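Sample pair:
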Amino acid sequence: MVGALSIVLGCFPIAEARADFKVCNRTGHTVVLAIGLQKRANWVSEGWWRVKPQKCRTLVQGPLKARYYYLLAVHEGVDGYWEGSRPFCVASKNFSVKGRENCRKRGYERIGFFEVDTANDKTWVQNLSD
């Protein structure tokens, strides 16, 4: 019986766990997100992703390569946001900005993002709550 079971199980590929950086909105309002991270040797900030209440969104696909990521999240249509002390460049429309310096000279706003320490895990879920 064990031999037959191993033959049957051998016919089905084993799914690997997916590694991503995901943000889950645990609030009652839609949030918009921006992320700051290193891509190769450059700092990059990207946004905006819209996440409905009680939903999640993947911002980085695949195994994480850095320990620290930086987030900015804003409640849409109501006051409230999550920010921090790590400055990145942002724009009012969807953006991808290389570099963290001279934001205003380059036509962007400079806003502080909060730090997320993944402890070098290959996957991370960041929950946002009120």
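The domain at 17-128 is CATH 2.60.40 (Immunoglobulin-like).
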